[in-house]
Each structure stands twice: as C-alpha cells, then as structure tokens.
Fold these 2 entries.
Entry 1:
Amino acid sequence: MAILALLGLLLAGCATGRLDATKPIGEEARDIDGLMRLSGWMAVGVGIFVAAAVAVIIVKFRAKPTDDPDDLPPQIHGNRKAELTWTLIPTAMLVFLTIYTLPTVFALASEGDGRTIKVEGQQWWWQFSYDLDEDGHYDIVTANDLVIQTGEEVNLEIHSNDVIHSFWIPQLNGKKDAVPGRIHEWRISSDEPGIFYGECVEFCGLSHANMQMRTIVLTPADFDRWVQEQLAGKEAAQAAPAEESPEAAGAALFETHCISCHVVDGAYESAAGGNANLLAGIAPNLTNLMSRTAFAGALYETYQTGPDGEYLRNPDGSLKLNLAELREWVRNAPDMKPARADNQQGMLDFSEVLTDQDLDNLMAYLQTLGSEPVLPATNAGAG
Ligand code: CUA
C-alpha cells in the first residue's frame, strides 16, 4: 500500500500542469533552470555516492558470528585524512556552485531594456498598468492578463495594495514578493508567443489560491494591435449606448451598483472621482473587460474553451463568450470565489439586488467594453 501511495504521488508529478518551472521560455527563467539543473544533478551525484557507500559499508563491515561482541571496530576520530576529505570535497562543490550562481543572481537583478509595467497585487487579483508615453499617467490598466511582446525584456514594478503577495510566472522567471509600501523590480521576457500561467505564491488570505494571472506574449505586430485596441476601447467607452437599448439599461445599472468600486475609463472615471474605494484601486478597471481572457482573479475564462484549452468560436469566427459564468459572477460572486466583500475584499453578492432582466442588461453593457482579446498566434484555436 505504501509503495502504491508513493507511486501515486510520483505519477501526480507527471500531470501537465499550467504552472511548470521545468519548461523555461524566457532568458531569466532559463538562467534559473540552468542553475536548478546543475545543483540538482550535483545533489543526485552526492546522493548516489552516499547510498552506494552505505550499501558497501553495510555488507563489507557487518559483524560476523565469530566476532567478539565487546570488540569495537577501529576508531578513526581525529583522523586528519578523513576529516580533510569530507571537508574539502563539499567545500569545493559549494565554491563551484557559487561561481555559477553569483553572476546569475546579478544578471537577474539588472534592468532590462524594455518597457516598464506596474504590477499591483490585491486581495485577490493582479492589476497591470502601462504608461505608454512615459508621462506619469497610465494609459492602459488591465487585470489578470499581463500582455507583453516577444523579445522584449520587460521591467516590472511590483507593489501591493494590502498584504504581502508574491508574483510568479514559472516559465518566465522566479518569484518576487509584492510588499505594501515597497516597489520590487523584476524582469520577464519570452522568446515565443503564448499564454503563460502564474499564481500568487505568498499566502494572502481566504482566496490566495484563487489569485491567479497569466502572461499573454504576442509578436510585436500583435502587441501593437493590442495597444491600439486598448486605446480604441477607452475611446469607445465614452460613447453612450443607444437610448432604450439593453446596453443603455445595463449602463444605468452599472452606474448605480458598480462604479463605487469599478472604473470604466472615460465613462465613469470622472463620475467616481474622489471615491475612497477607487483611490485604493479596490476592484478591476473594466474599460476593456472583453479583451481579457479571464476574470475573477483569472479563475474563470472569459471565453469558452474546448477540452484541449483551445478557444471555441461562433460561426462568424468570433470567440464564444462564457456568458453563463460571467453572468453568475455578477449575480453572486462570493459563491464562485471565497471573499470578504464586507471587508472590501472581493465582490458583493447581488443575487437579492439584481433581477434576471437587470443581469441580462448588465451583460449587454459589459459586452460593449472592449473588443475580444488578441491571442498569441500559437494559441488562437480553430474550434
Ligand atoms: Cu495574493 Cu496569495
């Protein structure tokens, strides 16, 4: 039974998880992976040597029936040769590892030549802000999806707005804590387009395990398109929906129930000005909601995916919205992700507040916020 249980544990490691530090994609992650393999194989070598030595010693030096039980084996305490051997060999191994480790540590701490993106950890989701023209004003603010381009060494400024979190995209770099009142600099890069998943890796309360994020890596051309679409989404959000439409009814509901926590740039930025919750950045900026692949701390997919994670499409080629879960999220969020809305951590339960008609109208309005995501070439899915 014990062997079976162990085997089960071992095989569990073979699952194709979304968090995989053993398949590095960017330079930083590769450097870390190289060190991990080097030290790992050295440890394996030491382990095999020690295990073999123990086996040989057990067999060769075991007490024979003819031995006098009071007769001790030769004592080697203070033997200079033995002491030197087991001091110098480990020292040499550690020096060897240090020589390889130090340059990597310094290289990882250096600044990249790409753009800087502000990362904020909050209970329990991540916000990413882009200052495109470096005028101190953030032009694009998004949640859950960190969008970057291939080949760019992106500098992250990692903050926290409440407790300590830790930012980790295993395939792109190691972990970096997000600490209130501090800015931690970190760098990520990727050679290839793709979606790389991450998690908060510092226990930060009730929904710590539900504080996920993803890095969407696009080719430079696709990244430019994403930037243009984000800016266009901001522009479009300022236009009022056609009167008497479900979108207009939804916008009115949004103004009543949502803007004390959520911003839509243009439409509700000024209306909510000075609101204490907004100043704390308590909830995601929803300006380009439809352009994000996930919602609720990246716990749920904005668009429907098939069994292999490929995106499903409507007959007209557009992505299939995951309307059911999005609607349920707006109706009763605490049911879908443990939170403490009473303590400004997570969304309120609106199931007693919003009618079915209200929810339909809100869904219609939310669908006007931004265009669908720009997906990495390798992940577009044919469906
Ligand atoms: Cu944030 Cu754990």
Note: The radius of gyration is 27 Å.
Entry 2:
Amino acid sequence: MDGARLPGTPTDDGDRIVAHVDMDCFYAACERRREPPLEGEPVVVGMGFEPGETHGAVATASYEAREYGVDSAMAISAALGRLPRKVDAVEDPALDVADAGFYRPVDMEYYESVSERVRAIIHDCAPVVREVSIDEAYLDVTDETDWNTVEQWAARLKDEIRSTVGVPASVGVAPTMSAAKVASDRDKPDGLVVVEPGDVRDFFADLPVEDVHGVGPVTAEELDDLGIETAGDLASADPDVLEERFGERGLEIYSYARGEDDREVTPRGRPKSLSRESAFTEATDDRAELGDRVRSLAASVADRATSKDALYQTIGIKVVRPPFDVNTRARSLPGPVDEPELVESVALDLLDEFEGQRVRKVGVRVSNLSFTAGEQASLGGFESANDDTATTGPGADEVNDDGASEPAPDGQVTLTGAAWAEGDASDDAATPAVDGQTTIDDFCK
Ligand code: DCP
Ligand code: MG
C-alpha cells in the first residue's frame, strides 16, 4: 500500500475503510469463557436474581435467552418470569427445566480483563482505533487492506479474537463510521457485513430512523410526527424543515441519513484540535455582535487548551453564512504557544475578511496541538461512550475535541478552506508501526 498516507486520512479515491467491532452478548460471553458448559445455554447476566432479592436489572442475555424475550435493561423480575433459573426449575415440578436459564451476577473486573485482551488484538491489527465502550471499537483499516480483501481481513480478525480470547465478535465494514456501526449490528451474533462505497445510502434507506447516528428515541418520535420513519425518508426530507425543527442537528442527521459522514476514526485521549462554535438565532452582519461572540469562543477554547496542557500552533475560525456556506480560515504561528490573547486577536483578525456579510454561526479552533511534558495520553480504554460533539439548536454552543493519538511532530500547517468536519489529519502524527508481535503480527500482515 501507499506508505505516504497518514492513518485516518482518505485514500486516493476518497474512501476510508472503517471497521466497527462489537462483541456479542459480551458479559454473557465472558461468563461462558470461564464456564464452558454455559456454551449454547440461555445465560442472563444481571443483578437481583437471588431468592429474597427484588430489585435488579439484566445487563445482557445470551442469544438463547433473548429467544425467551429476555434483554438488556429489563427488570430482573420480568426476566425471571420469562426464563426461570435452572436451579429453581429442577426443584419446582411446575417449571420446565428445558425452558430455564443460567443467571450470573455482574463481574466488571473480569469483563474488563477480557476486554483488555480483545483490545490488545485490535490494536495490534489496526493502526487507528477508537474505543467507545467495554465491547465496542472503531478501526481505520484503510492501510491494512482494500475493498477486495477486507471481508477476509475482518473474518480473520474475528477468528483471531475468538481463538485467542475465546469470545465472539461481530464486525461491520463500511467507508463511514455510521455505516460500519449499523453493519456490525446487522447480522449478529458472529456477524460480518461489508458495505462497499457507493452502497451506503441504499444500505441505510430501509432502516428505521433510530439507526441514524444522532437520532435518539425522542428525535425519532418527532421525526415520526413529520412522517419520517426510515433513514431513507430522512435522506429525502427537506433540510430546511429539519433545520427549523432541530436546528443544526437537523442538518447533521440529514447528512448522516444520506450516508455522508466525515468523522474520522480518532483515538480517544489527546485531542487533535479544540473548537467551540456558536449559532445565532438570526443571521447577523453586526460586527460588534460577531466580535463579541468570537471573543468569548476564543477565551473558552484557549481555556480548554490550557486545562488540557495543550499548546497550539494554528488558530482558526469558522464562519457559516446562510444557508449552509461553511468557511474556515486559519493562521499558523512560528511555534506552539499557550496564549489566550493571541487566540482572540488572530480570530478577530481572520473575522475581518467577512466584514459586512451575514453570518449565522461562528467558531474558533486551535489545532496542530502539542502537549507539555508530564501530560500522559490517557487512552480511556473501553470506556463508556461519550461523543465529543454536543450539538444543539441556534444560540447554543457546540464543543468539539477531535481525538488524535499523538501531537503534531513538527508544525506542518494546512491553511485550509475545507470545513472543519473534514478534520485536519495532515496535522496528525502517524501511529508507530507494530513490531515484535508474532502470531498477531503475522495475522495483521
Ligand atoms: N450493558 C449493560 N446494560 C445495558 C446494555 C449493556 O450493562 N443496558 C453491558 C452488558 C453488555 C455490554 O454492556 O454485555 C455491551 O453492550 P452491548 O449493547 O454491546 O450488548 P451485548 O454485547 O451484550 O449484546 P450484542 O450482541 O447485542 O452486542
Ligand atoms: Mg456487544
């Protein structure tokens, strides 16, 4: 493969290859790992199922237990009603042992240790990994494989996890994170679904709108009111209506439904850039109002950089003119600094170019980050999911820390006119190659 491409940046044809790995019924699979007779049996992991206990919930259920209607987050009493405990069934002639299951208490320490092993394999096989929960990660594998061979690659990753750690995984592969996530869920358990470039919008079309990134149950209900039930409906909806109803987020979910998703797979830990944006309720060309907003965003971004011990070498602004005209400008400095006044003065300077123009959203960003000595990258492990960007309607702010594993090494700066959403991977240092691993390394090659 072309060694010049940095991890996380598009291939020549613009398509990244993103894999999403999600372990199958993870806690239950962990229990089976240490208690093999549970293989093939209905297994429920949760709390509150011992005699005398009344409260508790199901953390997860094996796929055999799901056939009885037992699932995550269900009250344990409801689960026991559908699937009695095996130990109770053998004692109680009114219960059928064949329709009973094995209940096990949650043991996070053990699940974390299994997760750690899975993570080790994933990191050895992919240069860029974003862990999003105890059993879930995104991988950018553009450099590891290509569209002709990615299915085999993913099958081998699954086999490697299964044979080395002893737990099953499902993998989705697609050119975007959103599609890869949906794909990994499509054929569970032990699933492997590849969505090729060009097929993403079709792949989404018939899915319920909840499957679109950024659409939760409340938004789904509101969309339903608008007659939008599927991702396909959302993709062909009127973006103005969506914006009016949901603000900026309306446009985001519209894009995701269309298969457009520029998010890069970036490791958690040190951010690649820090930005803050703010939308006006009504577009404005009032220089004083714009200046005030930029000043306060600049102060907030600089503050965040200081709190993260981040030095920045590039300061930029984003100016969105109605309806969707996104402009970014950035200026590089001779060296990395932590100077809040400079963020403000450069941002205001860059804003001058838009004098007299109506603006509906402004943002300030510092990028090309490096970190002061002593600050360790804290790759959070398979932590609970925590989206970096919280987008809200007009008048509210959006915070965005783009993750990256390493600081920029030598201050290469791109004065980009591209939207921030496209990221600035040119500032991103390549992750060092894996070395020394034997079996896993062989597999990775
Ligand atoms: N979990 C939990 N409570 C929930 C959901 C999940 O404690 N309401 C825990 C138990 C799961 C683990 O998180 O095993 C991973 O969550 P997933 O949503 O990935 O669920 P599973 O891995 O169990 O099942 P699936 O095969 O659907 O991924
Ligand atoms: Mg899972």
Note: Residues 234 and 370 are 40 Å apart (CA to CA).
